[in-house]
Structures are given as structure tokens and as C-alpha cells.
Amino acid sequence: MTDLAEHLDEVNTVAAEYLKGKSETQISTELDIPRHRVVTLVKEWKVMASNSDAVRVRAREALAGADQHYSQLIKEAYDIMEDAKNADALGARTGALKLILDIEKSRIEMLQKAGLLENRELAEKMLETEAKQAAIMRIITEVVSECAHCKPKVLQRMAGIGKEAVIIDE
């Protein structure tokens, strides 16, 4: 059990650095772990995170908090740029613009990394919806196939909905 706990601690430590926006190489150097091991641990963390509802909830909360933090940093950088403009300090204005660009770049990278969780969640919802639609279609075709009066009406209406032809057994 101790080996598992140590392994999970290592995964969490690497994931924490990864979420701060550090590259696998930076994490490897900072934590003195071989880069290939860091890459493996990041992949493992992504799989664990995408399979856990609790982690997805926490990730969304953390993402919202980080996004809010980025907004505050950008606001402060714009304030710095305005102060530099009023002081006619071109170098400071240029530095503030670069800071804003860097913050936005980091924000976008963070949001792209978080897309992994959202895409998996969206795919799961789509699969669930498709399964429900297939079940509804089975019910309709089974029920309507027994009613000569309803069958043509249902076929006509269903033809207008989907791309596939609807066939109801007699």
C-alpha cells in the first residue's frame, strides 16, 4: 500500500506543476525526475482526472478560480499601462503590453489543457443522448407497427426529422 500512496503523491506533485503551466521538461528539472517519467505521470493523471466526476468538479472550480485570477492580473496590467501612458513612459507601456500578452497566452494554454476534461464529458453526454434516442426509436417502431392508422402518419413525420429512412416492420 505504501508504494501506491507514494506513486499517487508523485502523480499529484507532477500534476500540480503541470497545471501551473510548466512543461514536462521544466517539471523534470525542478523535481529531479526523468522527463519520460514526468510525461508518463502526466498522461496517467489525465486519464484519472477524466474518469473521475469528483476530479472534474474540482477541476472546473479550479479552472474558474484561475480564470478569475487571470482576469485580475490582466486588469492590473492595464492599470500599469495606463499609469505608464500618463507618465509618458514608453518602455513601461511596452512592458505592460507584453505582460498582458503573456498572461493571455498562459490563460489560453490553461483553458486548452482543461479542454481534455470538457471534451470527455461532452462525448459521454452525446453517447447517452444517442442511446436514449435509439431506445425511443425502438419503442415508436414497435408500437406503430401494430397500428395501420398511425403508421403512415408517424413515418411521414419521422421522415422530416432525420437523414435516414425510417422503416417500421409490419
- End-to-end Cα distance: 61 Å
> What kind of sheet is the major sheet?
none
Structural class by helix and strand composition: mainly alpha
The DSSP helix count reads 6
| Number of DSSP E strands | 0
Question: What percent of residues adopt helix (DSSP H or I)?
Answer: over 70%
Mean pLDDT across all residues, rounded? 80
The secondary-structure element order is: HHHHHH
Low-confidence stretches: none
Shape: flat
Relative strand content: under 5%
Gyration radius, rounded: 27 Å
Strands, helices and their partners?
Elements: H1 2-19, H2 24-31, H3 35-50, H4 53-86, H5 90-144, H6 150-159
Helix pairs in contact: 1-3, 2-3, 4-5
Q: Would you give an account of this structure?
A:
It is a single chain. By secondary structure, the protein is mostly helical. It has a domain at 1-51. The chain is 83% helix and 0% strand. The protein is built from six helices and no strands. It has helices at 2-19, 24-31, 35-50, 53-86, 90-144, 150-159. Helix 2 crosses helix 3 (35-50) and helix 4 packs antiparallel against helix 5 (90-144). The longest helix has 55 residues, at 90-144.
